[in-house]
Amino acid sequence: MLDAFEEIGVPGWTITRGRGASTENKQKVLGFRLEPTKEIILTVIKSSQVDEVLDTAEKSGELLKTGNGISCVLDVEKAAGLINL
Prior knowledge:
85 residues, alpha+beta, Alpha-Beta Plaits, two-stranded antiparallel ribbon, 2 helices, 20% helix
């Protein structure tokens, strides 16, 4: 996904780790539910880029397949440290 973001000009991103599970993914080992580690990619973009970035995330991350994650848009009221916007 990051290569695809670079190709369309996304100026940068932050990657952090998270855990999560869905009702579709109920794997258990020794009776304990597994919550797989996931990468969370955060990026701040111009509103004019939203549709292209969301479409790119969906395609490159194969997000229509169950368990491959989600992509969402959140409005950012204020931010500091953004150089390339």
